[in-house]
Amino acid sequence: NAGVTQTPKFQVLKTGQSMTLQCAQDMNHEYMSWYRQDPGMGLRLIHYSVGAGITDQGEVPNGYNVSRSTTEDFPLRLLSAAPSQTSVYFCASSYSIGGNEQFFGPGTRLTVL
Amino acid sequence: GDSVTQMEGPVTLSEEAFLTINCTYTATGYPSLFWYVQYPGEGLQLLLKATKADDKGSNKGFEATYRKETTSFHLEKGSVQVSDSAVYFCASGTYKYIFGTGTRLKVLA
Fold first, then answer.
1. Which residue of B28, B32, B42, B44 is the best one to mutate when testing the A interface, meaning the one whose CB has the most A CBs within 10 A?
2. CA atoms in the 13 A half-sphere facing the CB of A57
3. Average pLDDT over residues A84-91
4. Record: contact B46-A40, CB cut-off 8 A
5. Strands lying side by side in the sheet with A19-25
6. Which residues of A touch B100 (CB under 8 A)?
7. Cα dihedral A106, B4, B21, B107 sign
C-alpha cells in the first residue's frame, strides 16, 4: 500500500494563478479531507468528503474548490492564488468519520508570491 | 462549536524527564480523542487514541486517559528521549475532526 500520496511536494505560484493539488489513497477509505497548517494555528480543515460525490466545507473553505469523483482521489483546486494561501497543505483519509484514525499524506508546501 | 485546546509550546526537557502535555476539548457529542505526532518535514501520524470515557490509549511509552468529567486527554511519558522531539497534536473526532494548535517538544541530551 502506498497509503496517502500528494503531489507536488513543493510549489511556487504567482498571485492570481490557479493550480490543483493532487491527493490519492489506495486504502478504500470513504472519508478524505484537506487541511492547511500555518505556524501557531495548528491544522485547519478546508474541505472534506464522506464518499464519492459528497463534499462539504470545513473551517476555511474560501478560495478553494474540491470534487470527489472516485473513492481514491480528492483534488484541491486553488482558483486564484493569494499570498494568504501560502501554507503547508495536508490531505488525510480514514475508513469513516469520527472514531477512526486518519492517515496523512506527506504534505505540499505552497508559496504564493 | 467543538474545539480542542492544548498547552502552548515549545516544551524543552532533558532526556529521561517526565512529560505532560495538556489537552482539553469541548464537544456536543461523545468524540473519539487522538494524539498525533509530526516529525520534521513529515505528515502527522497517529500516536494513540481513545474512543470512550475512561479509556487509556498507549503507544511507545506515551499514555493518555479519556477523562469525561474534566473533558481532558493529557499526554504523558515517564522518560523522554531525544528521538521524541517533534510536534504533538491533540484532536477530537465526531462528525469531523478538530485539531489543537500543536505543542513542539524538544528533548536535550
1. B44
2. 7
3. 97
4. no
5. A4-7, A19-25, A76-78, A64-66
6. 42
7. positive
